[in-house]
Amino acid sequence: MLRMIQEQVENEFTINKSKFITWLVPITDEKQAKEYIALARNTHPKAVHHCYAYIIKQDYQNIENQSDDGEPNKTAGMPMLDILRHENLINVIAIVTRYYGGIKLGVGGLIRAYGSSVKQAIDLATIHQATLVQGFHLECDYSLASIIEYEIKKHKGYIKSIDYQEHVNIFYYYKDESLNTIILEKTNNQPKIKATDRIYL
């Protein structure tokens, strides 16, 4: 069962005077992952390491990446990634920022510290089962936009964006085609609807 976190979680703990700060953040693509890594560096410029691991799954594409960021090879990023895999989490990045306290932890100590950092953050997170949903692009006249938006929300669809141009363009996600049938019935088959991407929500 694939799982996702619902909101960002932050956790902090200290081992032998080294402080470990963990961000666990829901993401949808690698661009967001890079933005959060940059944000962690900017938020904690005096920290010596900003290690990370992330898993992104969209439809049939699976992207994984990790970094030790200067820690000994496979003592930070890989243990963090292993925890995410073990917990069946997707569309998530874990970033662990370390302030060095002057006492070396050794290879085993680092592996335990970074793995524990991520596990503690996961234990604090609100987690739900991931569902693969279909994306749709709907084009309609302005007069129908509010009716369609109401129906999408009423049936618990997820609206990604609404773009007001010559016509209204609504991008949304739903589990299947059934919501489109309802929308067309309510609007005398006027909107144009086409399928787009599939993602996990």
List the helices and strands and how they pair.
Blueprint: E1 3-5, E2 9-15, E3 18-26, H1 30-43, E4 49-58, E5 61-67, H2 77-86, E6 92-99, H3 106-124, E7 127-129, E8 132-140, H4 142-154, E9 158-164, E10 168-174, H5 178-186, E11 192-200
Antiparallel strand pairs: 1-7, 2-3, 3-6, 4-5, 4-6, 8-10, 8-11, 9-10
Characterization of the model:
It is a single chain. This protein has 201 residues and is of the alpha+beta class. It folds into 2 domains: 127 residues, Impact, N-terminal domain (Ribosomal Protein S5, domain 2, 2-Layer Sandwich); 69 residues, Alpha-Beta Plaits (2-Layer Sandwich). It has a 5-stranded antiparallel β-sheet, sandwiched between helices. A 4-stranded antiparallel β-sheet has the order 9-10-8-11. It has a two-stranded antiparallel ribbon with strand order 1-7. Helix 2 packs parallel to helix 3. The mean pLDDT is 96.
What tags apply to this protein structure?
201 residues, alpha+beta, Alpha-Beta Plaits, 2 domains, four-stranded antiparallel sheet, 32% helix, elongated
Helix coverage percent: 25-40%
Q: Average pLDDT across residues?
A: 96
Main pleated-sheet profile: 5 strands, antiparallel
The count of domains is: 2
Shape: elongated
Topology, number of strands: 11
CATH topology of the largest domain: Ribosomal Protein S5, domain 2
Q: Whole-Å distance between the termini?
A: 13 Å
**In what range is the share of β-strand residues?**
35-45%
The CATH superfamily title of the largest domain: Impact, N-terminal domain
Low-confidence residue ranges: none
The CATH C-level class name of the largest domain? Alpha Beta
Order of helices and strands: EEEHEEHEHEEHEEHE
CATH architecture of the largest domain: 2-Layer Sandwich
Radius of gyration: 21 Å
Task: Give the class from helix and strand content and strand pairing.
Answer: alpha+beta
Strand arrangement, major sheet: 2-3-6-4-5
Instruction: Please count the helical segments.
Output: 5
